[in-house]
Design brief:
It is built from seven helices and five strands; from the N terminus they run βαβααβαβααβα. It is an alpha/beta fold. The protein has a five-stranded parallel β-sheet with strand order 2-3-1-4-5, sandwiched between helices. Helix 1 (15-26) packs across helix 7, helix 2 (33-41) packs across helix 3 and helix 3 (45-69) packs parallel to helix 4 (86-94). The radius of gyration is 15 Å and the shape is globular. 34% of the residues are buried.
Length: 168
């Protein structure tokens, strides 16, 4: 069983779109962690946040990480906050996973997320500032969790090829 490839990074960095392409190129299954949680819970991420708050979501996310980590050979698109919790990083690593940080410049992320309606943490009037503040908090944690940092400012197909070229 080969280890999982876990994609982490800020909202809008391309974890799902890059993950989909990388999984296809590598002949692996993609597990989008947010979709996995939604299917497991029978509700959307937004509904989970509304009903149980961020802490309730994070508990469900940690359970999902534990379940998904036990399977090998997948490309896992983690949620934007997944690797901010050391326990999740530990679970990914215990199962032989390699964590890749998809690094995208702040300005590009702000542009990509300017009209987003799906992410609960961004539904605020001062969105650009919220993105900047969250990015500044999270970027060092992504770097700390990552085994490899991938320049992800390019189109998803290019970033996926960079991942394939790592030979994982």
């Amino acid at each position: 069983m080969t280890g999982n490839i876990i994609l982490c990074g800020f909202m809008g960095c391309g974890k799902t779109s890059v993950g989909r392409r990388a999984a296809k190129l590598l002949g692996r299954e993609l597990c989008d962690l947010d979709q996995y949680i939604e299917q497991r819970e029978g509700m959307t991420i937004t509904e989970i946040f509304a009903q149980f708050g961020e802490s309730g979501f994070r508990e469900r996310e940690a359970q999902a990480v534990e379940e998904v980590s036990k399977q090998g050979g997948m490309v896992i698109a983690s949620g934007g906050g997944t690797v901010l919790f050391p326990h999740n990083v530990e679970l990914f690593h215990q199962s032989g996973g390699t964590i890749l940080f998809l690094d995208v410049p702040l300005a590009a992320l702000q542009e990509r997320l300017k009209n987003d309606k799906r992410r609960p943490l961004l539904q605020k009037p001062n969105r650009r500032q919220v993105i900047e503040d969250l990015f500044n908090q999270r970027a060092p944690l992504y770097r700390a969790a990552a085994d490899i940092i991938v320049d992800a400012g390019a189109p998803p197909v290019v970033v996926a090829r960079r991942i394939v070229d790592l030979g994982l």
